């Protein structure tokens, strides 16, 4: 078995939130980072350092890292592979240590997107300059994204990857931006890049043809078979632009349970799949997107049996009709639903109702003044998310009020002149 590993880089907080018609509040993104950390995910692409409204959220999350609250996961930013953007990223988020830098590489993108403003040599120059600038400013590790890699000629991809490696990049992100690859083509292409360059490879696959998970898994296999580490880009519940990205739970289970992978390929040992049920349901609530009944591991029918033959077999030994047990993905508990009197917390809540709720969560305050201060932050959380505030969110606010307030503070016109008609 190869000593090379397959690790997870979850991009829910970057690619997932780019999805049309949906989004996450900064507090929700923070809770997701913390849950991904507890789950043992290697890295979270937590946002855009150049974007003004992300600044407080990104800096507060890095504070949580320094405080030891977010303990193991690496928080990485997404930056265009342009020197000026890298400089701006450090101006807004000076303590960032990890980043992926992205630029388009395909003939289609060069012609149809850049429209003469940038040619192939410009792409190489911009990318290498951005990587070197990031190193000079203090980045500890850099991934370089070849956007639309699956529609880029292999010779050009090899040159791009080699230039990134020589400039100091740690990984190449192979982006199947339009879901164009199939498992066989991506295996061949990624294997060639890995063998020729010796670079670790990230697999970033979209689901336009329904093969995001299959291509992510096949590309990871190619990288490991070629002697380098593989990094699977995932999103929780497969949320992503257009038809989505590779689903986090599905990718992990494919490596752990499928016939060609289990016992033959080494998934990051920190992964605790028992936390996926809670995380998937929290993300579903935040995105306001129901989990499909047949969703891998998480859907209501994932462990449901009705046919007589199947029921008989499952009752005798669940392995007859289940490839893995429900408790392996954090299921099996009985969920209680309150049907009587309910006290919820929102933007107009009072101190008595708030104390009643926090008492159930076993939160203790030093004084009424402290309780009122936390209540005020929880009120803002309700305004911030436009949803009832969850137990985990309230617990976070109560434990780390300074970071919570920073996360929920957005300054949209910082340094921007407001037009006369809007004053």
Descriptive report:
This protein is of the alpha/beta class and 423 residues long. It has two domains: 5-287, Aldolase class I (TIM Barrel, Alpha-Beta Barrel), CATH 3.20.20.70; 351-407. It is built from 15 helices and nine strands. An eight-stranded parallel β-barrel has the order 1-2-3-4-5-6-7-8, surrounded by seven helices. The longest helix has 18 residues, at 120-137.
Task: Briefly say what this structure is.
With 423 residues, the protein is α/β, with parallel strands linked by helices.
- N-to-C span: 66 Å
CATH architecture of the largest domain: Alpha-Beta Barrel
- Strand order, largest beta sheet: 1-2-3-4-5-6-7-8
DSSP summary, beta strand count: 9
**What is the CATH topology descriptor of the largest domain?**
TIM Barrel
Helix content: 40-55%
Largest sheet: 8 strands, parallel, barrel
In the residues, how many domains can be counted?
A: 2
SSE string, helix = H, strand = E? EHEHEHEHHEHEHEHEHEHHHHHH
CATH class of the largest domain: Alpha Beta
**What count of helical segments does DSSP give?**
15
Principal-axes shape call: globular
Give me the CATH superfamily of the largest domain.
Aldolase class I
Average pLDDT level: 94
Tell me the fraction of residues in β-strands, as a range: 5-15%
Q: Based on helices, strands and strand pairing, what is the structural class? A: alpha/beta
pLDDT < 50 runs, ≥5 residues:
none
Q: Report the radius of gyration as a whole number of Å.
A: 23 Å
């Amino acid at each position: 078995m190869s000593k090379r590993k397959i690790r997870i880089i979850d991009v829910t907080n970057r690619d997932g939130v780019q999805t049309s018609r949906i989004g996450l509040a900064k507090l929700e993104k923070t809770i997701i980072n913390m849950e991904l950390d507890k789950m043992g995910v290697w890295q979270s692409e937590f946002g855009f350092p150049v974007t003004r409204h992300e600044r407080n959220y990104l800096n507060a999350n890095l504070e949580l890292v320094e405080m030891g609250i977010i303990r193991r996961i690496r928080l990485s930013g997404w930056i265009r592979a342009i020197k000026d953007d890298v400089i701006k990223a450090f101006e807004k988020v000076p303590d960032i240590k990890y980043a992926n830098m992205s630029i388009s590489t395909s003939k289609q993108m060069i012609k149809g997107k850049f429209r003469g403003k940038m040619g192939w040599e410009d792409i190489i120059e911009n990318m290498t300059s951005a990587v070197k600038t990031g190193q000079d400013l203090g980045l500890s590790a850099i991934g370089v994204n070849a956007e639309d890699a699956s529609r880029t000629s292999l010779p050009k991809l090899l040159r791009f990857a080699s230039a990134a490696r020589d400039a100091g990049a740690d990984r190449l992100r192979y982006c199947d931006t339009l879901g164009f690859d199939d498992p066989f083509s991506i295996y061949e292409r990624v294997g060639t890049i890995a063998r020729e360059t010796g670079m670790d490879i990230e697999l970033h696959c979209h689901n336009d043809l329904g093969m995001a998970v299959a291509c992510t898994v096949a590309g990871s296999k190619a990288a490991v078979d070629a002697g380098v580490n593989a990094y699977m880009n995932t999103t929780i519940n497969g949320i992503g632009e257009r038809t989505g990205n590779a689903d986090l739970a599905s990718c992990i289970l494919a490596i752990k349970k499928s016939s060609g992978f289990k016992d033959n390929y080494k998934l990051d040992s920190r992964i605790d799949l028992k936390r996926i049920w809670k995380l998937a349901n929290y993300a579903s609530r935040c995105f306001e997107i129901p989990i499909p009944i047949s969703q891998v591991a998480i859907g209501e029918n994932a462990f449901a049996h009705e046919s007589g033959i199947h029921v008989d077999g499952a009752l005798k030994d669940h392995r007859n009709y289940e490839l893995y047990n429900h408790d392996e993905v954090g299921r099996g508990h009985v969920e209680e639903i309150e049907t009587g009197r309910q006290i919820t917390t929102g933007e107009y809540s009072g101190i008595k109702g708030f104390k009643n709720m926090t008492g159930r969560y076993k939160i203790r305050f030093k004084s009424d003044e402290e309780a009122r201060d936390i209540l005020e932050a929880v009120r803002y959380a309700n305004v911030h998310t436009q949803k009832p505030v969850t137990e985990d969110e309230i617990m976070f606010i109560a434990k780390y009020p300074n970071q919570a307030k920073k996360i929920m503070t957005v300054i949209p016109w910082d340094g921007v002149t407001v037009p006369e008609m809007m004053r």
